[in-house]
Write a structure and sequence with these properties.
The structure is a homodimer. By secondary structure, chain A is α+β, with helices and mostly antiparallel strands. Helices cover 29% and strands 37% of the residues of chain A. Chain A contains four helices and six strands, in the order E-H-E-E-H-E-H-E-E-H. Chain A has helices spanning 28-38, 67-81, 108-117, 142-152, and strands spanning 4-23, 46-48, 55-62, 85-100, 125-129, 132-138. A six-stranded antiparallel sheet of chain A has the order 2-3-1-4-6-5. The radius of gyration of chain A is 17 Å and the shape is elongated. In chain A, 50% of the residues are buried. Chains A and B meet through helix 1, strand 2, strand 3, helix 3 and strand 5 of A and helix 1, strand 2, strand 3, helix 3 and strand 5 of B. The complex binds threonine (2 copies). One threonine is lined by residues 22, 24-29, 48, 56 of chain B.
Chain lengths: 160, 160
C-alpha cells in the first residue's frame, strides 16, 4: 500500500470500562460480552494485553449514554467470571489517525506518538488496525491532540 | 453501516514483544517506537491497556524475520525508559474478522469470542477498529480458530 493518512478522527462520546483481574482462559471474553450483546449495547474499542500470573484486564468503550446500563450488566458478569474490580471513566476521548498502509509503513506509529508527546499529552490506551491507530487521551487534551496530529501528518482541515 | 463480515484473516508470521512495567507518562510510547522507526521496522498490532500504580505494558507485533533486530532495539530503549522486563513470543498467530459496521452492531464481538470459546481457544490479546477485530491466539489454534469463525459468521471459503 502507498501510505497516506487521510484524516484525524476525534470522538468525545466515550465511556471506558475496565474489568480488572479477569482469568485468562477460554470463554472469559465471551462471558463478559455476551450479556452486553443480549442487551443490544454497542461496543466500540476493545483492548486486552498480556496476562500476568494467569489474569489480565479487558477494557472497552461505549457511548456515554450507555454507561449506566453497561455497568449494571458488567458488574454481574464480572463477579461470576471472578474479576477483581470494575472501573469506569467518562472523561476520555478517542483520537485516531485514519489512512492506508499504516501497518506496512515504518514510522507512522512513532510519528503519532511523537505528536502527542511534544505537547505532553498522555496516551491512556492504544489499539491499531491496518487503517487506523486509536489512542484514548484525557478529554481535556482532545482538541490539542487533534491539532498536533493534523500538523504532524500535514493535513489541512480537521476531519471531525 | 449495514453490518457485514466479509472475511476471516489469519496471519502466522507474528512475533509479539511485550514491554512490561513501563511508566505511564507522556513521551514513553514515542521513546519506545522511535528507534524502531529509525531502523525501518514495520510494526503491526500495538496494544496498551489501563495502567496500575502509574505503570503499564505495551505489546506489539512484528514479522518473525524482524524479531531479533527489534529485540536489540527494544532492549536498549526499554532500559532507558525504565521498563521492568521485555518478553517475546514467536508462537502466536493473528486471527481477525474483517467487515463493515463492526462497531455499530451489537453482538459482533460476542459472536467472535463465543466462536473461539466453544473449541476452548484462548484469546491472548484483543484490538479493534471499525472494520476489524483482531485476536492473538496460540499458533497451534490458528486453523481451528479460522474454521470456527467461518462457521460462526456463515462464510464459505477461508479468506487467506
Ligand atoms: C481474557 C480472555 O480474553 C480469555 N483469554 C478468553 O479467551 O476469553
Ligand atoms: C505508556 C505510554 O503510552 C505513555 N502513557 C505515553 O503517553 O507515551
Amino acid at each position: 500500500d502507498a501510505q497516506r493518512i487521510r484524516g484525524i478522527a476525534v470522538d468525545t462520546d466515550v465511556a471506558k470500562i475496565s474489568v480488572l483481574g479477569i482469568p485468562d482462559r477460554p470463554g472469559i471474553a465471551h462471558g463478559l460480552f455476551q450479556p452486553l450483546a443480549d442487551d443490544s449495547i454497542n461496543i466500540d474499542v476493545i483492548v486486552q494485553n498480556i496476562s500476568h500470573d494467569g489474569i489480565t484486564d479487558i477494557s472497552f468503550t461505549v457511548s456515554r449514554d450507555d454507561l449506566t446500563k453497561t455497568l449494571e450488566l458488567v458488574e454481574g458478569a464480572s463477579q461470576s467470571l471472578g474479576a477483581s474490580d470494575v472501573l469506569h471513566f467518562a472523561n476520555l476521548a478517542k483520537v485516531s489517525i485514519v489512512g492506508t498502509g499504516i501497518q506496512s509503513t515504518p514510522g507512522v506509529a512513532a510519528r503519532m506518538f511523537g505528536a502527542l508527546a511534544e505537547p505532553s499529552i498522555n496516551i491512556e490506551s492504544i489499539t491499531t488496525s491496518e487503517i487506523r491507530i486509536t489512542c484514548l487521551v484525557h478529554e481535556d487534551d482532545a482538541q490539542r491532540a487533534a491539532q498536533a496530529l493534523h500538523q504532524a501528518f500535514e493535513l489541512d482541515q480537521p476531519e471531525e
